[in-house]
Amino acid sequence: MRPLVFALVAVASTLIAGVAPRPFQDDEFKNLVAGHLIGTWDVKDDVTAMLSGPGGGQLGKSMTFKEDASIEKKVTGEAAEFIKKQGVFMSGVMTKSDGDFPFVLTQVAGSPYVFWFRERKGNPMGDSESFFVSVAVGGSRDKDLLFIGGDVDNQAFTAYSRARPK
To answer: What average pLDDT does this structure show over 65-73?
Structure first.
């Protein structure tokens, strides 16, 4: 409770003194998942077994995420309208065992959420799929864990760890 009181007093005193609160800097409060998603990830079988039982990894045993800001502009239709309302934290290309797929990192009800797209009827962005995503940040980047869930909030997550260089 005390930190809130101090924060309110600080804001009130700056307003009374005629000084506006300091605006956020560009590097503050970035989306946690967007800051750690890029890279190659391999299923972490032991953690996945705890979460969802053996055989997890519905999107594949290995995944790579690369940033490409142009993908956001290629999304059309209902997906584009939804994503525009929710905000875009990142866009790029997700590679899994069956190919490369454009993706957009957005949010649903405050939780990080990925829409990914595959070809339908000649449109490379014609069919959208989605999943909840989360990151547990490690003491170093190679210790990060990635968690990928289903497209609704009652489905178990699959755990991934950063792939080791080969």
So the answer is: 95
